[in-house]
Amino acid sequence: MQRRAFMGALALGLTSSGATLLAARRATAARFEITRTEAEWKARLSDLEYEVMRQEGTERAFTSPLNEEKRPGLFHCKGCDQALYSSAHKFDSGTGWPSFWQALPDAIGTKPDRRLLVMVRTECHCSRCGSHLGHIFDDGPPPTGKRHCINGVSLTFRPDAA
Predict the structure, then answer these.
(1) I want to staple 99 with a disulfide (CB 3.0 to 4.6 A). Which of 9, 25, 93, 125 is the partner?
(2) Any catalytic annotation for residue 77?
(3) Catalytic residue among 124, 126, 129, 149
């Protein structure tokens, strides 16, 4: 009986957390320069892109071709085309996701992510459209010591003109 009560409380907590996340996303959507309805985002993005960028999902590690991208250029938000990261700040973290030690100025926003019960992470999103990019950790290289662990599906790459 105690197990059933615990599972019910857990389910209620998860449901209300999901509702809270959705309400928070709707409330903050107005603060972004680029806003679209959920239907517009769904029409514009693949199922995986929508799951990651609009529902704060994560792509599987080692699946993005951008993880191996080494050419000079810029990584842009797939949702609004804002430039986010320079290839000059990219490094091989070995984690399976494109990783950068810093973003371009004013390109990303952050917020606490408390979805994991064991730790609070720093979620990062595009400052222009609010699309979820990934997370920032404190185990990156100098000079910042940060690792921006970014879902490749959230990005497009534009090589520098030769």
Answers:
(1) 93
(2) no
(3) 149
